[in-house]
Amino acid sequence: MNKKLSFLLIVLLFFLAGCKRQPADFQRASFERIISLSPNLTETLHALGQGDKIVAVSDYCFYPPEVNHKERIGGLLNPNLEKILLLKPDLLIGTPAHAELARKLQAYQIPFVLLPNDGLNDVFFTIDSLGRLLNCPGRAKQLLKTIKDSLSYYQALSRQIVKRAPGAALIIGRDPGSVRHLTVVGPHTFLDSVWTFLGGKNIFSDLAVKYSQVGQESFLTRQPDLIIEFKFKEQWSARRDSLNKIEWQPLSKIPAVKHNQIYVLTGDYTLIPGPRVYELARDYYRILRQYAQKPF
């Protein structure tokens, strides 16, 4: 039994211990009132054709547009337990970050499943697990094939142009208007795994944590070829892009700034490890293609 399947079964056994159901019964159960606690799970449920079973979502779920008509039960730090109970869900689905909420709800005997959401393989695992759990394995299998085919397509295109894996700094935050307090992406993360899948290199892949705030000296030491910033759902323009590149000038000695290789991704899918992962792969491929076309 692989590690992640063991993880899922442990979660099921732990949270169903007081539910008077055996694990086999849980697998055969039919769930009609689901609360989704994470955007990636909400998107996956809809992609599997199970959106009509969702009675509520977290405050951070906005895709697909149909979820805007769903009840909201708060976010990770402020879940509304009273509202959750009033909605009478027969299943809650979350990520490992929701373990504390799961413990609080254990006394109410509501089935609660936690699914990993760190890397690319977790996207596949979540789709497969929900397909089995909600009795739609065929739909899950087809969805997985579509996603993997798209990823393989962009990987093949990237291999044709990548002669040397460019080192990128993947950045999810910094002080406005400056290059202070840079928050970078480390290993074993969604953004890292898709980038390396396409042939790129994450210059912070040796960090001991998944995300970390680093200083400018780290960039001067590691010398990234590319800087990729994630500005989730921000309105972008050519003018903003130009101003953004000016903000990086204090680090003009690193190759990425020196050669104007600073890219910004704003899509609402970029930070959500869900079925739209192929769109992130497409964006990464476009960056690799632009980099490969430069004369340096």
UniProtKB/TrEMBL annotation:
> Per UniProt, which keywords does this protein have?
Signal
The signal peptide, as residue positions, is 1-23
State the Gene Ontology BP annotations.
cellular response to iron ion
InterPro entries xrefs: ABC_Transporter_SBP, ABC_transptr_periplasmic_BD, Vit_B12_bind_prot
Q: Provide the Fe/B12 periplasmic-binding domain boundaries.
A: 33-292
- The identity of this protein, by name, is ABC-type transporter, periplasmic subunit
The record lists the organism as Caldithrix abyssi DSM 13497
